[in-house]
Amino acid sequence: MMTTAVTARAHTNIALVKYWGKADATLMLPQTSSLSLTLDQFYTDTTVAFDPTLTADQVTVNQVRLDEHASRKVRHVLDLVRAQANRADFARVSSTNHVPMAAGLASSASAFAALAGAASRAAGLDLSSRDLSRLARRGSGSATRSIFGGFVEWHAGHDDASSYAEPLIDPVTWPIAMVALVLDPHRKKVSSRQGMQTSVVTSPYYPAWKQVVAHDLAVIKPAILDQDFTTVGEILETNAMRMHALTLSANPAYSYFNGATLQAMQTVRDLRATGVACYYTLDAGPNLKIFCQVADLPAITARFRQDLGAEQVIVAHPGPGLSWR
Ligand code: PMV
Question: What is the rounded average pLDDT of the residues 31-43?
C-alpha cells in the first residue's frame, strides 16, 4: 500500500547539562541523564513516504542524495519503524536543514527528531511523544530531547522503555536567549559517537563526570523553575568545560576547541567582568553558544559582531517541540 507523504518539523537543542557517553551503543542508552533548551532558529523539515515500488530506501538531505554509508543511521530508524508498523516497503525521505548558512551547528538532533515524527506517521503509527522520543534516540542521542520544546530532560533509564525525554518547562516565558557564534563552519573532525566512546573507555575522569552530571541536574532544575539566571549560567558553563575535559583526558586526547573558541570564551569572561551577565557552552565542535538575558542581547551581539562580523552572530530563543505540517 502506497502511503501519503508526511512532513514533520523539529528544532535543534543545546544541552545545558551534557550527554557524553553511551552505556549501550545498540539501544543508544546514555551513561547519564542530560538537560537541554530547544532553540527556535534552527530546525529540520523532513518528508517521508513509503512506496512498495521502491527497491531500497532513498534519502535526500538538502537536495543531495545520500549514499548507502551516509544514509545508514536514517535507514536504521526506518527499519525500527517498519518493524513496529509490521510492513516491509521502502521509503523516500527528503530532509531540509534550516540552519543559517554555514552555522556549523549540530543538525542531528533536529534531523532524527523530525525523521521519527515523519516516518512513524507515514507508516501509519500514532506514537505518543514519549515513544517518539525513544525512537529518535535510536538515530542520535541528542534527538531524544528535540521531540519537545523549551527546557527538556532526557532520563538515562536502564533499557529501551525507560530512556526517553520529558519537558521540564514548555513554553518558556523567561526572557532568555542563546547567541550562537559561528567560529568555524567546517564539519567536526572527531564525531561525537567516536569521541564519547573514547572518553568513556579511556578518561580516568569519567567516574567523576557522572557525579558532576548528577550534581548539576539536581541544582539546575530548581534554578530553571525559579528563573535563577546566575545559577543556571554557572552550571551550564562549568558543565560544558567538564565535558570537554573528557576529551583532553582521553587517550588519544582530542579537542573540539580552536583558537577562536578560546578567544571567544575570554570575551565572555571580559563581558562578565564589565557587568554583562552571560555564560558559554559548546558541543562537539568549536562554535560557542552564549546564554544570556534578552535585556543584555544588544551589548553582547554588538561586541561579537565587532569581533567576528554580523553574519557570524545568530540570536536564538527557546523553541517549540515536534510538529507536523
Ligand atoms: O546526539 P549526538 O550523538 O551527536 O551527541 C551529542 C553530544 C553533545 O551535543 C555534545 C551533548 C548533548 O547532550 O547534546
Answer: 97
Q: Which atom of ligand 1 lies at the shortest distance from residue 142's CA?
A: 1
3-class secondary-structure state, position 153: strand
Residue nearest to atom 6 of ligand 1 (CA): 142
Terminal alpha carbon distance of the chain: 22
Indicate which residue's Cα is closest to atom 8 of ligand 1.
283
Confidence of residue 1 (pLDDT cuts 50, 70, 90): low
Cell of 305: 559582531
At 185, list the grid cell. 563552519
Return the SS3 of 157. coil
- C-beta of residue 140 within 8 angstroms of C-beta of residue 115: no
Cα separation, 217 vs 157, whole angstroms: 15
Instruction: Report yes or no: 92 and 49 within 8 Å, Cβ to Cβ.
Output: yes
19 CA to centre of own chain: 10
Cα–ligand 1 centroid distance for 98 (angstroms): 19
